[in-house]
Amino acid sequence: MLIAPVSLLLLPAEELAGGPYPDACVELAFNPTSTSDEANAMVVPEPVRITPADLVRLRVESGLVLGEIRAEVQRAESAWRQHLSHWYRDGRLAAEARAPDISLLQRVLDRLRNPVRL
Predict the structure, then answer these.
(1) Which H/E stretch holds residue 95?
(2) Three-class SS state of 7
(3) In which domain of life is the source organism classified (predicted)?
């Protein structure tokens, strides 16, 4: 399922009067999304009312989580590049040797074809 766009709406005071949460003046509405399981099935999430402080907190916390995800992706990519450079170096050294180590070349080729998941 794809992430649906979110729209924000500041509710008018008349709509908030007499409600159980008069401070919750921001409405988060999500666009309908389709499910991948069933053809032509649509999911329409209910709008959520929150306070402006909750909206700011949501923005800050989501930014922190996305930052952590980006850092983890960069660490994984760096580790993958290190493994790749070791395989490349070992393969190059084996290929440049006068009598190449066939088992080493085979291991390098196997790793390049089927990289180890980190």
Answers:
(1) helix 52-96
(2) strand
(3) Bacteria
